Amino acid sequence: MATGLTPPTDPKAARRFWGHVFLNYPPREVVDAPEFPPRPDLSQEIDWAPYVESKDARLARILWDCPTQKLRQYLDSLSQHPFPRPDDADTRAIKHTEGLALEVYELLLLEHMYPLAESEWESKWTQMGMDQAKWPFNDILEVWGHMPHTGPVLIRGEDVLTSRKLTVAVLRQELRDRNQDHAGTSQVLRQRLYDYERKTLTLFSRSDLSHWRISEGKPRKRRINPGDDLNPLDMYTWAIQLSPYNPTYWVSRAYCHYQQAFFDLAIGDAYRAQLLCEVLVDARCRNRQPGLYPRIWHAISQHILAGMNSETGTVPPEVEKLRQPNGVNYFIPTLRKALHNIISLSLAALQAREDCKVMEKYLPQRVVMPDRDRRPFERRHEVMEAYFEETHSEKEAKKLWFHESRAGRVSTERLYPYESSDKHRTGQDFLDELNQRLFRNNQALPWRRCKVKSVDRLKPAKDSATALGVFATENIKEGQMIFVEEPAMRGHLSVSRLPWDRCEDSARTPRCDNCYKELDAATPEVDQERIRRIKAGNDVAACECVLLDGKEAIPLSYCAPGSGPKTCSEIARKLYHFRACGKNWKWLHDAMRPCMVQWRDGSHHFTHTNEAHGTLLSLLLREVFDITLERRERFRDPNLMAHEIDELLILEDKLDRTDEKVAFPFTLAANIQVPFDILMQLGVDIFGDLSFDTWVIQIVLRKLLINAIPWANVPVLRMSKEPVKKIVRRKEIDNPEKQREIIAERESFEGYDPSFRALYLYPGLSLFNHACPEKHNAEWGFDFQEVPNRVLVWAKEDIPEGKEILISYTESPLTERGMLRQLGRQCACDAEHEDESSDEDDAPQQRSQYPPLSAAPRVTTPDTSADPSQGPSTRALGAQTKAIRSQMDGADDDREEFAAREQHLLPEATEAEQQFLMELEHHMATRKRPYRGEWEETGDYKRRQFAS
Ligand SMILES: [Zn+2]
Ligand SMILES: [Zn+2]
Ligand SMILES: [Zn+2]
After folding, report:
1. Which ligand is nearest to the CA of 583?
2. Cα 509 to the chain's mean position, in Å?
3. How far apart are CA 863 and CA 871, in angstroms?
4. How do strand 769-770 and strand 806-807 relate by DSSP bridges?
5. Can you tell me the mean pLDDT for 801-824?
């Protein structure tokens, strides 16, 4: 017996005994781990778009009909169908109810066994005649006469008919950009622009990047001008814009993405269709979010009614069906079958094995289906194992980290359909602006010792590849500080512990959510007066998140007010903590960490961990969305895209990536489900607001993946040279019995903890290129003594003016695989790089391979001391700062003593250096960062913006 207990011999007593054992020692399988991470319980967060008007619904129907008829033609041209319809009761019952996804579903059934191969999509697309499928925009406008959604026409964010900011020069430029006549008075020009824009379709808006001096105001691909043609994807996207709650359009667009081998986008669309269908068919979902259910019903019925021929007045059988008791719900089964086949096939194409298996079961387990519809799932199931074996390299699997163990791979060779390719980071205007902000005008940086330039030594060189690097602008002496930065995004994951766990555990100590400093465990009493102040946003040391404790939520704590001009809480609420404030994000933390259940006797145990879903970037992603939404309002820039906010814009993107072998991890939870849920909790309508479409989310995640930096366990780093906690390949959650033993013996549950407790994004630091150890000339590390999540970069050796400053992201040279993962390309340094084949399967993993930057400070001395083993220099620098500070304001004894102990390692700080350090403190206290928001307030932005 697993319990090691002997049951009594008396049968009655034995029965009681086993009942007791079962109820008190739950076996591992008793509580099934859910297949996907938890979802938030949302109710009033979102203002849904208005009900679709019937004229918009009619246009959407036409837009959908055109490409769908193309699919029908292709289908009819095929001689045989592997799943012919038998003439039986089943078939007759569903007559006239398949219209919403008939073509898509039939085509999927034709090739239901294996997913489309990425290399084949173009020939398939051509074979279907879809490559030639184009519809003149003018023809569609002619039928409809005007653009739907009337409202002011905005140019550069201003109303074109009235705004005084649009001068004649600006108006002329805008007309020239559109190849239009640009002569005339201001009034004429305005009207001409207005008329032109009225006939223009904006499928996707674009960020106004003029403050980065990037292609000011020039229309990008996402606009359809008079005279242009629309392709199938444009048609479906436009239909979605007109009627976002109709799952039909989402399924059709998902199929379009799938056939073009954008499998991640296909899943994003099919998943949204699934959410809509579930509201219709699942009574538990129906009333959760007020207003959504009737909108979906209305959108579908409008679509069906739009199929009536107004000239003949004939009533199609679909409309008859609609009037029967089940109404719209007659039409849902085909949609669901189609969308689930798309999700399954796309997951298989991405080799997301686990997710694929789960989703294959989803529909057959919930719905009784006729044979014809059930068989594709069954037959695919039979071959899928073999398919995965075929495409799956055993060696690759072994090397996966635990947090990526479920992930499939998305190739990055092609741009997404609406991704723009007109930003080039190497443009001189852009570089000037970047240097101005990051170094010359950055108030948070006391030193002006470097600048960003383009580098062209990256290999392998592709023509379009661009890269930036940081170069010394003066002779920098060994040990001198070069760069300092506080994080632009924070992902502070709260660890979960069983309530009975008595293990001494530093992970439980609360930390400031801004600077990550450890706080006193005792939280101050919150009296009524303070609660009132906090709710009104008037408490300088707290936000509403401290009041969340009661709802099992995760309260946020901040440092108490200090000598600085602003408290940590004020900084948070000013820079990055907006709509997320005061909301319960427990589900999001649970989506990234071990989860527990409560058993019968009140005991708790961990059942599973969601870390395997690869959700480690979710908290950073939330910050990106939150900041984007805030800046849209604050800067009246409604079209700002999440991947083009300042912090992400300056980082590499697809255009800079040079290696086809780079692939990004993909899971249904991390790349689709959780991002959509975050957006909805922040109040974004994921159906009506295409500015957060799937491709935008994927680009943001890629940028974060390449640039996120893990923060290491402070005590380990500060006190010893022990390696940072390893990023592991496997993590087992023990059975409940074992967990009781762990508690009884006061052992730690640390082994279950997620691999990364805190992840940060430092856009400035990310611009420093990597060189493998001993080829680098600068060190970097955290400022543990002062602001634990502040990073510092200093010279490891003398760096002459003009030389590139290179830091090492890792402790040992990168292997080829490591390079692709961490840098998104090959390493350009001239160190020996181990070939992949020479890696032993069981060789210890390189430490902190990914996310890229190792958090461990390197062992160097910032002084001229002969012995290089003396103390990590971050520590030393921190101590030095501390010493000065403690003279100024009298720090606590403990710290002072520590500082004194370290002091002998350092040379006498010169007066100039002391000056620098004091300046650093001063500058950091004001924390004016180079991104929009902070930087705008310096007045510099305003001056330049309105001087011209
Ligand atoms: Zn703080
Ligand atoms: Zn808050
Ligand atoms: Zn290297």
Report:
1. 2
2. 28
3. 11
4. parallel
5. 78
As a whole number of angstroms, the distance between CA 874 and CA 785 comes to 9
Taking the centre of ligand 3 as the mean of its atom positions, its distance from the CA of residue 829, in whole angstroms, is 4
Which DSSP string corresponds to 308-342?
S-TTT----HHHHHHTSTTGGGGGHHHHHHHHHHH
Same-domain status, 121 and 146: no
Q: How many domains does the chain have?
A: 3
More confident site: 671 or 745? 671
What integer is the mean pLDDT of 61-70? Answer: 94
Task: Please report which ligand is nearest the Cα atom of 773.
Answer: 3
| Tens digits of residue pLDDT in 828-883 | 777 777 765 444 333 333 333 222 222 333 333 333 332 323 222 222 222 223 22
Residues 432 and 573 in one domain: yes
Token pair belonging to 776: 């680098």
How far does Cα 255 stand from its chain's mean position? 23
Residues 123, 272 share a domain: yes
Among 796, 830, 864, the domain-final residue is: 830
Among residues 481, 329, 546, 456, the alpha carbon closest in space to that of 828 is found at 456
Tell whether the model's pLDDT for residue 124 goes beyond 70: yes
Separation of 518 CA from ligand 1 center, angstroms? Answer: 8
Indicate whether 196 and 285 sit together in one domain: no
The residue out of 354, 383, 412 marking a domain boundary is: 383
Confidence of residue 934 (pLDDT cuts 50, 70, 90): low
Sign of CA dihedral 289, 290, 293, 296: negative
Q: Please provide residue 595's backbone torsions phi and psi, each rounded to the nearest 5 degrees.
A: -120, 150
Query: Minimal CA–CA distance to 707: which of 657, 632, 777?
Result: 657
SS3 760: strand
Please report which ligand is nearest the Cα atom of 543: 2
Residues forming beta bridges with residue 606, ordered by sequence position: 596
Nearest bound ligand to CA 826? 3
Q: How confident is the model at residue 399 (pLDDT cuts 50, 70, 90)?
A: low
719 part of a folded domain: yes
